[in-house]
């Protein structure tokens, strides 16, 4: 009898499913994240920074979003989650949903199946730099590094602009105001949505530090003074523990978990730096705006904070090349490609605006979200009469082994992101080597998988995935 009771308890513990239910309203809030300028930002339920979403693998998340902005549409994307079977909850407006108008609500509902570090953000009209973005953290009861981890830290890095996105986009696109097509220059770098941030460390403890790049445009380098990092996760994929490093590089949208072990001594505090990569900006090498933000590892509150952040000698070396990382599960290189897609990416003038294009098509938001067109028209999905002339859709067969070649004809390096899947990075050229000659040289036996990867300026990238998530697709550059 007792045994039965225990058994029942054990069973109910195992089978009980927990749920995360959130009621969020997007609202305007006044904030001053970089300490230099107060401006309206988009917060959640009157709060800025917006809160992190936390869930455990297997949990169901139900989030009802109400648009209380009054004067702008919105919509919300859960970056990196595959939304397998729940593609209407993916969130990009024009692709899986209509823009959410003022006063309207939408409910996103999905079960989290992937552990790791993600983020959420508005996916409507380039809106997230105005504040609507935050961490999405999935706890893993089976984390293979659990026995090494005593605690967790979360660090977001981002560029920050004093002007609002609608004010930035107009002049950026304008051929007369911006003949060089130069990207708007940020006013500063922020850490955890603040000019600075501090982590209180306990001596000798090891922290899984989740670093999330929520930038609009800039890549970031992060360095902790006299504290080594070993990479254990990128974009939700556990890696074989990397070599210790003191510098990491993240493009916008990328995430990384690193192990950092606190020192035994509490006799001083240490600084760390989040530095934007200025080589991505047209002002380089003369960028004078502060592109660096400094944070602190605090061991002893009675001791001063260091006056200067750590320095590093180069923006292009000294960090671990993510191409060399090995996935923890040792999933081998996908072979037997059944479908190859080539994406020629370039910047130029389209519709008399500064724009980017893929295969000579620039993105024009469809009136009907693409997912709905695909579901209602099936094999007609690529018909320009249905999608519009500029949709540039590729239709995949279920379980195709897809190889995507990205030739970057732009001088700048750019992150490539795909929804619904992560992908194996099988080839990445240095700058200047595009286009790909259709010959794989020495692909890794166990390629790293990510959902965002950087393609170098005038370089190419080859990645592979299996089309095993019907209803989900989309590449962003
Ligand atoms: C909407 O209202 C906010 C808050 O007053 C303002 O800061 C923002 O510029 C407005 N957006 C547009 C597109 O006018
Ligand atoms: C930024 O950090 C400072 C110092 O820790 C704190 O006083 C301030 O409230 C923070 N600002 C925001 C917007 O969180
Ligand atoms: C974040 O991503 C942007 C865009 O790729 C990049 O310019 C910036 O350096 C990244 N920041 C970090 C800290 O990785
Ligand atoms: C940011 O940090 C880098 C690396 O130490 C340094 O070279 C650069 O001068 C700093 N930039 C600014 C504007 O302080
Ligand atoms: C795009 O179209 C223009 C004009 O039709 C042509 O000159 C150019 O070569 C095309 N680019 C690509 C990558 O196909
Ligand atoms: C989606 O779910 C199906 C069925 O369980 C599975 O075969 C497939 O691998 C999943 N795809 C992704 C991207 O998770």
TrEMBL record:
Residues 1-19 form the signal peptide. One of its GO terms (molecular function) is copper ion binding. One of its GO terms (biological process) is reductive iron assimilation. SUPFAM superfamilies: Cupredoxins (SSF49503). It comes from the Eukaryota. InterPro entries: Cu-oxidase-like_N, Cu-oxidase_2nd, Cu-oxidase_C, Cu-oxidase_fam, Cupredoxin, CuRO_2_Fet3-like. Keywords: Copper, Signal. Residues 27-142, 152-299, 366-471 form the Plastocyanin-like domain. CDD domains: CuRO_2_Fet3p_like. One of its GO terms (cellular component) is high-affinity iron permease complex. Belongs to the multicopper oxidase family. This is Laccase. It comes from Cladonia borealis. The lineage of its organism: Eukaryota, Fungi, Dikarya, Ascomycota, Pezizomycotina.
């Amino acid at each position: 009898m007792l045994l039965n009771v225990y058994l029942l308890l054990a069973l109910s513990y195992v089978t009980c499913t927990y749920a995360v239910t959130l009621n969020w309203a997007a609202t305007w809030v006044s904030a001053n994240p970089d300490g230099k300028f107060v401006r309206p930002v988009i917060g959640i339920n009157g709060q800025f920074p917006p809160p992190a979403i936390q869930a455990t693998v297997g949990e169901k998340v139900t989030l009802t979003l109400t648009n209380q902005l009054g004067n702008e549409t919105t919509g919300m994307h859960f970056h990196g989650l595959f939304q397998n079977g729940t593609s209407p909850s993916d969130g990009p407006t024009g692709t899986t949903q209509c823009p959410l108008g003022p006063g309207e609500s939408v409910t996103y509902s999905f079960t989290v199946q992937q552990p790791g570090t993600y983020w959420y953000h508005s996916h409507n009209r380039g809106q997230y730099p105005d504040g609507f973005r935050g961490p999405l953290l999935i706890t893993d009861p089976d984390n293979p590094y659990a026995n090494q981890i005593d605690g967790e830290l979360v660090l977001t890095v981002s560029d920050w602009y004093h002007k609002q996105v609608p004010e930035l986009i107009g002049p950026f696109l304008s051929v007369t105001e911006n003949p060089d097509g130069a990207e708007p220059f940020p006013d500063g770098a922020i850490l955890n949505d603040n000019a600075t941030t501090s982590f209180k460390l306990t001596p000798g403890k090891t922290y899984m530090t989740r670093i999330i790049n929520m930038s609009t445009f800039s890549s970031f380098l992060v360095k902790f003074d006299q504290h080594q990092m070993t990479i254990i996760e990128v974009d939700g994929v556990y890696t074989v523990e990397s070599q210790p490093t003191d510098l990491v590089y993240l493009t916008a949208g990328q995430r990384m978990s690193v192990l950092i072990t606190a020192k035994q001594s509490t006799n001083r505090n240490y600084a760390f730096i989040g530095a934007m990569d200025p080589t991505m900006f047209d002002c380089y090498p003369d960028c004078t705006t502060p592109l660096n933000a400094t944070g602190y590892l605090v061991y002893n509150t009675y001791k001063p904070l260091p006056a200067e952040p750590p320095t590093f000698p180069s923006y292009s070396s000294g960090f671990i090349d993510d191409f060399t990382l090995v996935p923890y599960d040792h999933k081998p290189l996908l072979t037997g490609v059944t479908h190859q897609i080539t994406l020629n990416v370039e910047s130029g003038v389209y519709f008399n605006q500064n724009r980017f294009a893929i295969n000579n098509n620039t993105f024009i938001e469809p009136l009907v979200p693409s997912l709905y067109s695909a579901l209602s028209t099936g094999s007609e999905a690529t018909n320009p009469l249905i999608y519009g002339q500029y949709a540039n859709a590729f239709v995949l067969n279920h379980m195709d082994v897809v190889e995507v070649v990205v030739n970057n004809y732009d001088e700048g390096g750019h992150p490539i992101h795909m929804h619904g899947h992560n992908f194996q990075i099988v080839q990445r050229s240095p700058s200047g080597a595009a286009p790909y000659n259709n010959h794989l040289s020495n692909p890794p036996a166990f390629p790293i998988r990510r959902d965002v990867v950087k393609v170098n300026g005038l370089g190419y990238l080859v990645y592979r995935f299996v089309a095993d998530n019907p209803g989900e697709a989309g590449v962003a550059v």
